[in-house]
Design a protein that fits this description.
The protein has helices at residues 12-25, 37-44, 48-60, 79-103, 106-125, 128-146, 149-168, 175-190, 194-217; strands at residues 64-67, 71-74. The protein is mainly alpha-helical. It has a two-stranded antiparallel ribbon.
Amino acid sequence: MLSQRPPIKLRAADQAYEAIEGLISTLRLEPGAPIVEAELVALTQLGRTPVREALLRMVSIDLIQQQPRRGLVVSNIDLAEHLDVIQTRRVLEALIAACAARRATASQRQEILQRADAMVQAAASGNLDAYMQADHALDVINHQASQNASAVQCVQPLIVKCRRFWYAYQHEGEIAEGARHHMALAQGIASANEAAAMLGSDQLMGYLEKFARRVINN
């Protein structure tokens, strides 16, 4: 059973951001889709101001674009640019993994292993939604454990882009392999082995790059 932690209270704008990010990364809001503020306000039930703040934040990281005569639209997936996303994420993830291996508490190390195990189990049963939910949960606890807010702030939009890419082209992926790499990363962090954690992170990014190249070349 996963350990229970008290929920972190998010600002309304952060709640709106997470809700809209989920719609974009899972393709419920598809690339090129128009952003209708009133619909998002109704969906999130968080008010116009926090939704606007969330949308502005997404414009700043290019998840949403401002287009002439069309207004705000969900950005398209650029296949070639995605390789740069992965290369940039590779550097940041290695830093975060090393910090987490060095700074995580005992309970965080346990939860990191539990989240990775949930990914392995989801992959074994072929449950993509459960796999991605466990992946997100692993990111959250890993980021908290790293205690490196600067690196986390930089990597988060890249993770969203990778998650959206995965949902768009999941027929090209093998989640069992992805789960194995996540487990190697988790084991490195859990054992306070910075080198092993960084190796697991690098192998995971290598897997994502291989996946992206397979999509691009097909």
